[in-house]
Amino acid sequence: MTKQRGMSIPTAALVLILATPVASWGLIGDLTNEEARQLAAEGVELDYAIRPVSLGPVGDRIVGVLACIGVIGALALLVRDTYTCRLDSRWWRVLLPLVGAGVVVGFTWRVLTAGGIGANIGAGLIIIFGGPLLAVLLIAAAVAALHLHLTRARRNGSNSD
User: Fold this and answer.
1) How many CB atoms lie within 10 A of CB 58?
2) Each residue of 43-94: pLDDT tens digit?
3) CA nearest to 92, candidates 17, 18, 151
4) Contact 27, 109 (CB under 8 A)
5) Strand-pair partners of 116
6) CA-CA distance, 37 to 35, in Å (whole number)?
7) Do 67 and 102 touch, CB atoms closer than 8 A?
8) Which residue among 2, 7, 70, 146 has its CA within the 20 to 30 Å range from the CA of 81?
9) Taking the alpha carbons of 112, 115, 117, 122 in that order, is the dihedral positive or negative?
10) Could you give the 3-state DSSP secondary structure of residue 29?
11) For residue 116, which phi and psi values (nearest 5 degrees)?
């Protein structure tokens, strides 16, 4: 039996799926516009659709960098395992929509937590357009996973005859 180093394929997939929203959140950065930042510096209280949670500038940067490292590492492992045929390439039909959904979630969080004066129009737009986009991506991943499962079940059923 050979000793396996590093992450297993399911662990890498899980890291990719969970770290993608945080990585996109970190890469996008605060979407509060410059005018609102200047007003906040003058003591004006900003309005938020959702008040942001922050670990401070350094803490937020560290979380974002660690998430990016997780995404890059998991992607590298999954691509390598696809190339060496340890990972069935059909699994990318499940993973890619989930990664896309993670990017949508990270972007949505940044829009919803952007400070402003008055109404946050972006929050309304992201709910109207981002919600259905997220639903489509999650349904696409579920359909691909179901198709992969049924294909495997049919193949295993025909092999047992």
Assistant:
1) 8
2) 777 877 888 888 888 999 999 999 999 999 999 999 999 999 888 888 999 9
3) 17
4) no
5) 47
6) 5
7) no
8) 146
9) negative
10) coil
11) -165, 180
Q: Which residue has the tokens 């198709």?
A: 147
Longest dimension (CA), the chain: 77
Structure tokens, 123: 């929050």
End-to-end CA distance of the chain: 30
- Among 94, 74, 80, which residue's Cα sits nearest to residue 22? 74
Residue 38 DSSP SS3: helix
Amino acid sitting at position 99: V
Sign of the alpha-carbon torsion through 47, 52, 56, 58: negative
Global pTM value: 0.83
Task: Report the alpha-carbon distance of residue 115 to residue 31 in Å, rounded.
Answer: 8
pLDDT in tens, 100-111: 999 999 999 999
Angle between helices 131-159 and 92-112 (to 10 degrees): 160
Residue 47 forms beta bridges with which residues? Answer: 116
| DSSP secondary structure string for all residues of 43-99 | TPPPB-SSPPP-SHHHHHHHHHHHHHHHHHHHHHHHHHHHHTTSS-GGGHHHHHHHH
- Position of tokens 């309304």? 124
